[in-house]
Design brief:
This protein is mainly beta and 483 residues long. The protein has three domains: 159 residues, Sandwich (Immunoglobulin-like), CATH 2.60.40; 138 residues, Sandwich (Immunoglobulin-like); 149 residues, Immunoglobulin-like (Sandwich), CATH 2.60.40.420. Helices cover 6% and strands 39% of the residues. The chain has five helices and 34 strands. The strands form seven sheets. Strands 1, 12, 13, 15, 17, 18 and 20 form a seven-stranded mixed sheet that branches. Strands 23, 24, 26, 28, 29, 30 and 32 form a seven-stranded mixed sheet that branches. A hairpin with a 7-residue loop joins strand 21 and strand 22. The longest helix is centred in the C-terminal third of the chain and has 7 residues. It is globular. The chain starts with 5 loop residues before the first strand and ends with a strand.
């Protein structure tokens, strides 16, 4: 297998102990499991400066920030219903945290500096511990100055295996990222500049899979691969075209979905989003099939080649079932839900878009002076986040169903992420969605309206923000309180 793609592996640091509370024991399929029988999986993570060979043909390493010396960090692979305990020892010269993206966990373990925890100082440690109610593909990254810490390489995959997974030949994780590099393969040190903040974020010039510019991904005819795609980029959207292959999406953001072909044949991932696809290898021995990213108009590029070996695994691809069992998410009662409105505005050309949509500014509190200072460029319901303590954008009654109608009144795409919960995407521009997919990050196109629905069952103050990390830093972040 090519070194540029990561397959299922078992970390050598894993140890097994029992203990922990019995939250997982209440999950469907886990009845009768006592607290003493819940396994706790223990890991260490050490964020620190390091070196990575991002561009092999450059012949030199790139200075990065990495977990345990590698980009991505180690793949943490555990099982649904288990307990995860991770000790983070900060080897950076600045504060950091770890956020467990997409996990429904206790608020104190969410890794948001000053909101859910004190940041981890240089040389300090923090222990995260929580149970894992949902199987699926997740990831971890800092939430302290994330536009630079993630942009320098601090992220890794968290895979939670199902008790009854679909049958496949290989389970492979691809963490997609892009980097803004110089000709000498150094990271360009212009994080947080005003142009990136007010436009499309820090879109790079070099795309990697699992920390390296890939050449090929070896496959065999007749093989069935479960490909876990994670977009770890600061701002780049992906729309992957697998050529004459027929990818079928079986999960989005970790949550099972009715298996289906992607719209237009393209697997679309905004920053922080994930998709699990089943990819049957139907090519001829010795052939190569390009995987092409087609998200940006007139900027298609070859991501990697599927390179077929000379000996097929089998003559025909298998006909095994591919539907995943659902996770134990509470179903929202949309008909009886409390309804809320959220509008995202600001950014370059923001005023023009508002006028085009016939909308009025909502008293944007930082205004043009904020944009001139390089902050306060993006707004949620007229407020640009500033500082550590935020008043809630919304306060949701715990245990009730809620529908949030979100309007993207800007000229740019925004992947909107809610911490601590998964939600159903129920409509786009007033049209019901086909699959009512569960997600934790939904990509909104310019001037698009999206409705999401969920049961607010996880108490606490939860971040609600655009996952283009420069947009988040420039104001497009808020708090949703569940109380």
């Amino acid at each position: 297998m090519s070194s540029s793609v990561r397959s299922h592996w078992t970390p050598s640091r894993r140890t097994f102990v029992t203990g922990g509370a019995s939250f997982a024991a209440a999950l469907p399929g886990l009845h009768g499991v006592s607290a003493a029988e819940i396994q706790t999986r223990k890991f260490d993570l050490h964020p620190a400066p390091g070196q990575a060979r991002l561009v092999p043909e450059a012949g030199r390493d790139t200075a990065v920030w990495a977990y345990d010396g590698a980009v991505p960090g180690p793949e943490l692979r555990v099982r649904q219903g288990e307990r995860l305990r991770v000790t983070v020892r900060n080897g950076l010269e600045e504060e950091t945290t770890v956020h467990w993206h997409g996990i429904r966990l206790p608020n104190a373990m969410d890794g948001v500096p000053h909101l859910t925890q004190k940041p981890i100082g240089p040389g300090e440690s923090f222990e995260y511990e929580f149970e894992l109610p949902d199987a699926g593909t997740y990831w971890y990254h800092p939430h302290q100055r994330s536009f630079e810490q993630v942009g320098r390489g601090l992220y890794g995959p968290l895979i939670i295996e199902e008790a009854d997974p679909v049958r496949i030949d290989r389970d492979v994780t691809w963490m997609l990222d892009d980097w803004r590099l110089t000709r000498s393969a150094e990271i360009r040190d212009n994080f947080g500049n005003r142009h990136d903040m007010s436009h499309n974020g820090r879109v790079g010039n070099t795309v990697t899979i699992n920390g390296s510019v890939p050449d090929s991904f070896p496959v065999r005819g007749g093989e069935r691969v479960r490909l876990r795609l994670v977009n770890a980029a600061n701002a780049r959207n992906f729309a992957l075209d697998f050529g004459d292959h027929d990818p079928r999406i079986i999960a989005l953001d970790g949550q099972p979905v009715t298996p289906h072909a992607p719209e237009g044949g393209l697997v679309v991932l905004g920053p922080a989003m994930r998709a699990d696809i089943i990819l049957d290898m139907t090519g001829k021995p010795g052939s190569r099939v390009q995987v092409v990213d087609r998200f940006y108009r007139d900027m298609d590029y070859r991501l990697v080649d599927l390179a077929y070996g000379d000996t097929p695994l089998r003559d025909e691809t298998p006909d095994w079932p591919i539907a995943l069992s659902p996770n134990p998410l509470p179903e929202p009662d949309v008909a009886d839900a409390r309804r809320h409105e959220v509008m995202f505005s600001g950014g370059m050309m923001g005023g023009m878009v508002l006028a085009r949509m016939g909308l009025e500014r909502q008293g944007e509190t930082m205004g043009m002076m904020g944009m001139m200072r390089g902050k306060g460029m993006w707004f949620i319901n007229g407020v640009a986040a500033e500082g550590h303590i935020l008043d809630p954008v919304l306060t949701l009654e715990r245990g009730e169903s809620h529908v949030i109608r979100m309007v993207n009144a800007t000229a740019w795409h925004h992947p909107i992420h809610l911490h601590g919960h998964s939600f159903r995407v129920i409509s786009r521009n007033g049209a019901p969605t086909t699959y009512r997919e569960w997600q934790d990050t939904v990509l909104m196109a310019p001037q698009e309206t999206v409705e999401i629905a969920f049961v607010a069952d996880n108490p606490g103050d939860w971040m609600f923000h655009c996952h283009i990390l420069e947009h988040q830093a420039a104001g497009m972040t808020g708090v949703i309180r569940v109380a």
